[in-house]
Amino acid sequence: MHGAPVRARQEPVQEVQMGATPPSPAGTDRGADDAPSITGLLKRLGNETGELVRAEVALAKLEFRELARQAALDGMKVGAAAALAMVGVSALAAAGVLALGDVLGGRYAAAAAILGLVLLIIGGLLARSGIRGMGQVNASGGPLGSLRQDGKWAAGELRGLRQELHHGKPQPAPAALKSPEGRH
pLDDT tens digit string along 51-104? Predict the structure, then answer.
């Protein structure tokens, strides 16, 4: 039996109507109720899961590259703006010290201290606001959030398949675990 060639049986071509279950490909086992075999389902699940993971990883890489490129450009803009702002603030501070010193009757040291304190307070408030804003960047989770959501979906699908295999009937997936195609 091991040396005998195996021939695939040829099935007649059948028309498939809309909504009808397509005929099984040659070599797959079908039960009495025309359901795909467990082996076929597991192979298909493995193949589709592998494809999904590869596609999601490729997408995440592209998204990370784009985020890094955009962050670098934005960082250069912020650096250039900060350098120009420093020069501008220095010039204004010098002018402010001179003007306030004239108002204070020639006490330029006191004018410099007052203006320096005001600028430190403004800088501290801006820094606190910026730090708070950094914590809220990308609240959607970005590429990793997408991968996590796909992982939850795949786990739900696997759980449903196990229940179907044990109980013999499909269990509906919770609304939060519906196919990832619906969320793109």
Answer: 988 988 899 899 989 998 998 899 899 999 999 999 998 999 999 999 999 999
Report the alpha-carbon distance of residue 62 to residue 73 in Å, rounded: 17
- For residue 120, being part of any structural domain is answered with yes
Instruction: Give the domain extent around 119.
Output: 50-135
Residues 6+ apart with CB under 8 A from 48: none
Does residue 173 lie in a domain region? no
| In-domain check, residue 121 | yes
Residues 51, 28, 11, CA angle at the centre, nearest 5°?
120
**Angstrom distance (rounded) from CA 32 to CA 175:** 32
Q: How many angstroms separate the CA atoms of 35 and 49, rounded?
A: 21
